[in-house]
């Protein structure tokens, strides 16, 4: 069931059917290994990507040049050696300009990914969707050509160190909506090698499965932001109510003064006889 | 068959008839009850309302029917003496009956904290229930001795009211300069904080009922502030008593509704869950809730002074405290039995949603109806201290000759309502702050000072048992104060460490 629907989706998206069939077979039959470096696979479906410099939004476009994923974030990876007594931490900061590529799909129950690559590092965001909503299912962080980390050789002779998130992240929104979080979001990354990391995402504004326009949809805020955004957005209600209270106070005092003025006048004129 | 008939005949002849038994039992019961509260209205006695300094020196303690003589000798027209000018009927028109005084006391001692009583039983077990009855008795006792301090026995052996307020008692015991000011300040703080607490609680309840609405807590408090502005027009204690009556009715509704709901689960009550052990760490929490719900001493001198028949004051105080103890113990016990370990800090959170909304609304109504009493008492305090006209006080009186409020008087009173609402909106973590400050002022006003003044003024004439009991109550007050301040101080510290709430 999955295979034909994938073909159809790529026909719709890409407009060309026969060329991609073999590639689809390859994609379909490859084992999805969580620790496998997803980087090269993306090449099959990679289209030309340009870096959109406005506000450092990283995009993924499909073959036709239509933007399907937009990501804006600041990422810092805090890499640690597992089981070490010392608190050894390497801080890896993602720069503003990175290479962005990935895959696109509009099919329900499909996954897309976005790779953000700089130097030897690659941050891969894997998005999944169902009929109504999408979520950031997994994050992979890859250090390529890593000979030595923390003063020790990378074990097993592997050149690539891959760290992956352990569970589905809480980053999700309905399809057509963007996820926006100004507060810090932390994701724990683990590896079969003795390394672990904390990924700190800041100023996150992401939306995959975009359809026609290269624009963010309406925002869904993270809970931490909700309170502070509420404060910025909903000050109108306290101000309105406060004004009503002030008006009521003034009305009471002025009304009573007028009442007393007329009452005293009546008493004075009444007793003047 | 014949034997049964014989036995029946024997019984009928030997036992007294049923109706005469019942009536004699009823008569003996009636004679056991004190009848002063149920007796007919006796002659109205107007005791001296304001004892000025000159009176002490003159040494005349007169039972004034009209108060005209005394006010003329003072040369200062205070509001009370204006009443006297108007004649006795005008004065007694504003006096309250013992029932009205009772509603006010009930308003003060059966307050909003009733919803936390099952939580107190959760932490205190049977000791909490015992505490509810015991503290009620102690507060009744301190209220009684406080009002006793207002009276002196003259050389002729008559008992006459020579002082009219808590402040006056303090002035006699601690000196003119600072005594009155200290007590006034403590009273004012306690009263204003009670007012602010009611506003905060209303805001909390409304937000709890509509958590996803656009109106936030601060806005609810300001909306309720608009509803409270008419409190500025309260002229006398009778108006306040009417509002306190409706407050008591709302309280009865809440009790009946929640207890009725709990009775529906009577089959699942956890009778064995009420603990007999005393847990040192959790019991102070229970104690705090119980102790500070019984504090009505600030109002008592004023209430007693405004009663048509002050001789019924003690009776009224006794029965209102008994009623409070019974209601509270029953409510706390039944509430805990229904939810046992799941009992929430505020029992309404245990109720299903729709029901909770209804109960919350009644609680908001109750809080709004409870607000006028401390507000009126605070305004009265400020008036007596600052607004009696020169040369005694800085400002002129707020009242004109016809006992109507002047415009700036209304403006001042409305301003005070605004102050309480603004402080409710602006101060974060008010509940805990009140617990902290209230542990100090509350224990002073309700436990320590009444006993101290009683000992100071009447120590020589008291039985040694009474003296010992007074000392014991002072000691208890100190313990409650220290424990209360410690737990609130710690909670306040924790709350501010987490950052100011938004």
TrEMBL record, chain A:
Cellular location(s): Cell membrane
InterPro entries, per the entry: Lysosome-assoc_membr_glycop
Record-level GO BP terms: establishment of protein localization to organelle
Keywords assigned: Glycoprotein, Membrane, Signal, Transmembrane, Transmembrane helix
Cellular component per GO, a single term: plasma membrane
Membrane topology summary: Single-pass type I membrane protein
TM stretches of this protein: 237-259
This protein's name: Lysosome-associated membrane glycoprotein 5
UniProtKB/TrEMBL annotation, chain B:
GO biological process: gamma-aminobutyric acid import; neurotransmitter transport
Keyword tags: Cell projection, Cytoplasmic vesicle, Membrane, Neurotransmitter transport, Synapse, Transmembrane, Transmembrane helix, Transport
Listed Pfam families: Aa_trans
Main location: membrane
Regions crossing the membrane: 126-147, 185-207, 219-237, 243-266, 278-299, 319-339, 408-427, 433-455, 467-488
Membrane topology note: Multi-pass membrane protein
Localization, UniProt: Cytoplasmic vesicle membrane; Presynapse
Catalytic activity annotation: glycine(out) + n H(+)(in) = glycine(in) + n H(+)(out); 4-aminobutanoate(out) + n H(+)(in) = 4-aminobutanoate(in) + n H(+)(out); beta-alanine(out) + n H(+)(in) = beta-alanine(in) + n H(+)(out)
Hydrolase as UniProt keyword: no
GO cellular component terms, A-Z: cytoplasmic vesicle membrane; inhibitory synapse; presynapse; vacuolar membrane
Region entry Disordered, spans: 69-91
InterPro entries: AA_transpt_TM
Domain Amino acid transporter transmembrane residues, every copy: 94-486
A molecular function GO annotation: glycine transmembrane transporter activity
KW NAD (keyword) present: no
Known role: Antiporter that exchanges vesicular protons for cytosolic 4-aminobutanoate or to a lesser extend glycine, thus allowing their secretion from nerve terminals. The transport is equally dependent on the chemical and electrical components of the proton gradient. May also transport beta-alanine. Acidification of GABAergic synaptic vesicles is a prerequisite for 4-aminobutanoate uptake.
Family named by the database record: Belongs to the amino acid/polyamine transporter 2 family.
PANTHER family (UniProt xref): AMINO ACID TRANSPORTER (PTHR22950), VESICULAR INHIBITORY AMINO ACID TRANSPORTER (PTHR22950:SF689)
Protein name: Vesicular inhibitory amino acid transporter
Organism: Artemia franciscana
């Amino acid at each position: 069931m999955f295979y034909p629907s994938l073909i159809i989706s790529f026909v719709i998206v890409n407009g060309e059917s026969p060329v991609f069939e073999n590639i689809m077979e390859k994609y379909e039959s490859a084992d999805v290994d969580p620790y496998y470096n997803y980087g090269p696979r993306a090449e099959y479906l990679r289209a030309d990507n340009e870096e959109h410099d406005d506000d450092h939004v990283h995009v993924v476009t499909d073959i036709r040049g239509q933007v399907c994923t937009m990501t804006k974030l600041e990422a810092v990876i805090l890499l640690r050696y597992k089981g070490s007594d010392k608190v050894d931490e390497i801080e890896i900061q993602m720069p503003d300009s990175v290479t962005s590529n990935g895959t696109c799909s509009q099919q329900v129950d499909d996954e897309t990914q976005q790779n953000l690559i700089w130097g030897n590092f690659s941050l891969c965001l894997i998005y999944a969707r169902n009929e109504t909503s999408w979520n950031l299912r997994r994050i992979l962080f890859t250090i390529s050509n890593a000979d030595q980390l923390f003063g020790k050789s990378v074990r097993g002779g592997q050149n690539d160190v891959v760290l992956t998130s352990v569970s589905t992240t809480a980053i999700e929104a309905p399809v057509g909506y963007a996820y926006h979080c100004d507060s810090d979001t932390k994701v724990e990354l683990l590896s079969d090698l003795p390394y672990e990391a904390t990924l700190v995402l800041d100023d996150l504004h992401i939306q995959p499965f975009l359809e026609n326009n290269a624009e963010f949809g309406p925002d869904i805020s993270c809970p931490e932001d909700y309170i502070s955004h509420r404060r910025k957005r909903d000050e109108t209600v306290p101000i309105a109510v406060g004004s009503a209270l002030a008006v009521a106070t003034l009305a009471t005092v002025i009304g009573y003064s007028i009442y007393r003025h007329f009452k005293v006048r009546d008493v004075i004129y009444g007793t003047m006889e | 068959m014949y034997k049964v008939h014989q036995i029946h005949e024997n019984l009928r002849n030997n036992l007294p008839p049923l109706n005469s038994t019942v009536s004699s039992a009823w008569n003996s019961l009636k004679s056991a009850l004190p009848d002063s509260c149920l007796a007919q209205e006796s002659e109205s006695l107007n005791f001296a309302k304001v004892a000025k300094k000159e009176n002490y020196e003159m040494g005349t303690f007169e039972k004034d029917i009209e108060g005209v003589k005394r006010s003329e000798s003072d040369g200062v027209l205070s509001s009370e003496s204006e009443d006297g000018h108007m004649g006795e009927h005008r004065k007694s028109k504003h006096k309250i009956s013992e029932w009205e005084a009772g509603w006010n006391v009930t308003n003060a001692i059966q307050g909003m904290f009733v919803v936390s009583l099952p939580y107190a039983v959760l932490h205190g077990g049977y000791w909490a229930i015992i505490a509810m009855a015991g503290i009620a008795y102690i507060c009744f006792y301190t209220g009684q001795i406080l009002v006793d301090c207002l009276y002196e026995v003259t050389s002729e052996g008559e008992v006459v009211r020579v002082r009219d307020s808590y402040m006056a008692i303090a002035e006699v015991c601690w000196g003119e300069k600072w005594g009155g000011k200290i007590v006034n300040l403590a009273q004012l703080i306690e009263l204003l904080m009670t007012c602010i607490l009611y506003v905060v609680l209303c805001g909390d309840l409304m937000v709890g009922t509509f958590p996803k609405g656009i109106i936030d807590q601060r806005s609810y408090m300001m909306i309720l502030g608009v509803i409270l502005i008419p409190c500025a027009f309260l002229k006398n204690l009778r108006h306040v008593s009417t509002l306190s009556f409706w407050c008591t009715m709302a309280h009865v509704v809440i009790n009946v509704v929640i207890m009725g709901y709990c009775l529906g689960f009577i089959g699942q009550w956890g009778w064995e869950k009420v603990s007999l052990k005393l847990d040192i760490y959790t019991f102070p929490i229970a104690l705090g809730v119980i102790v500070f719900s019984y504090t009505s001493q600030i109002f008592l001198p004023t209430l007693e002074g405004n009663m048509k028949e002050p001789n019924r004051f003690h009776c009224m105080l006794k029965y209102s405290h008994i009623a409070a103890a019974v209601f509270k113990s029953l409510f706390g016990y039944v509430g805990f039995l229904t939810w046992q370990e799941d009992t929430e800090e505020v029992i309404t959170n245990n109720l299903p949603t729709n029901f909770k909304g209804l109960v919350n609304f009644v609680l908001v109504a109750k809080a709004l109806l409870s607000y006028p009493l401390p507000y009126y008492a605070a305004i009265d305090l400020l008036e007596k201290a600052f607004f009696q006209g020169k040369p005694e006080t800085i400002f002129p009186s707020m009242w004109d000759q016809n006992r109507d409020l002047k415009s700036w008087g209304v403006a001042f009173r409305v301003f005070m309502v605004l102050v309480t609402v603004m402080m409710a909106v602006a101060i974060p973590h008010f509940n805990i702050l009140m617990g902290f400050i209230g542990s100090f002022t509350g224990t002073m006003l309700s436990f320590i000072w009444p006993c101290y003044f009683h000992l100071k003024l009447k120590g020589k004439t008291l039985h040694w048992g009474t003296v010992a009991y007074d000392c014991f109550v002072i000691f208890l007050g100190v313990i409650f104060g220290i424990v209360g301040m410690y737990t609130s101080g710690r909670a306040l510290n924790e709350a501010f460490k987490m950052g100011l709430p938004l």
